[in-house]
Amino acid sequence: MEEKEFRSGYVAIVGRPNVGKSTLMNRLIGQKIAITSDKPQTTREKIMTVYTDEERGQIVFLDTPGIHKADSKLGRFMDESAVGTLNDADVVMWLVEPAVFIGAGERYIIELLKKCRRPVVIVANKVDTVKSSEIAVKVPKVEEAYKRELPEATMLFVSARTGKGCDELLDTLYSFLPYGPMYFDIDTVTDESMRKIASEIIREKALKLLRDEIPHGIAVEVTKMHDREHYSKENPADNYIITDTEATIYCERESHKSIIIGRGGAMLKKIGSAARVEIEELTENKVNLKLFVKVLKDWKDDKNALKRLGYFTPEDK
Fold first, then answer.
1. pTM attached to this predicted model
2. Of 227, 237, 267, 308, which residue has the fewest beta carbons closer than 10 angstroms?
3. Is 257 exposed, middle or buried (0-12, 13-18, 19+ CB in 10 A)?
4. Measured in whole angstroms, how far is the alpha carbon of residue 307 from the centre of its chain?
5. Which residues, including other chains, have CB under 8 Å from residue 132's CB and lie 6 or more apart?
6. If DSSP codes are grouped into helix, strand and coil, which group holds residue 188?
7. What is the distance between the alpha carbons of residues 225 and 70, in angstroms, rounded to a whole number?
8. Whole-angstrom Cα distance, residue 292 to residue 194?
């Protein structure tokens, strides 16, 4: 294909927490890279994924933490990560709920978008939650409310859960991207390391299994990830690779540690079993996963702890 026909560029995905940014990104690229849950602070860092269509071009998605009022050094890191991405992108994809009411959180994002001078595609996600009998009336009202705030923006309605509207969304994003070269190899899906993806998978399973008050206070560090070969002299067909993996789940309090471990280690085993299955699917190896739990008091406001865990605070820049 001639370069003049090939479009490529970066699309920032922004929005308030829990609007489905990571779910939609996973849907668009056809593979789970970003973790998802209904708990706050699920996405803490910018995650890059790549969607390539050999005929049309390459879209590099930048999934960002939910933009919210920060109450800790971690929160400020997350907010800066999201806001800073606006200026790195060619197009901004803003996810919202399919509702007419525009709250303070959305208005804060509107002011940011007015300043970023990038094409904006407003995506009303979760359209599958709108009753069929209400769509004809509600959809135009939602579009009118948002277009009143950002008249130059394009607005689409999709469902990340079912995939409805996603093909049209990709078409729209391509139409805004400049003509240019392929930035990444055609097989590239993300630049995240396997260790980082594994740590996020473990955190996702903890998010879904633990009590509400605990997940936002945990972090996961993969401290070991090595492959070794398993040989069977009796049955050569039974040879395979084992990925030995060790990870530490950090929490803020001793009382949280006991809950994460559970009676007789039951909860930790549940988290490990659920994570192991998904890590095996990604690595295509058998996985020997060992989990540990340690208390790292007030780590969300500890600059050294944040740096160690990969969350670089504004003071570190």
1. 0.71
2. 237
3. middle
4. 20
5. none
6. coil
7. 33
8. 19
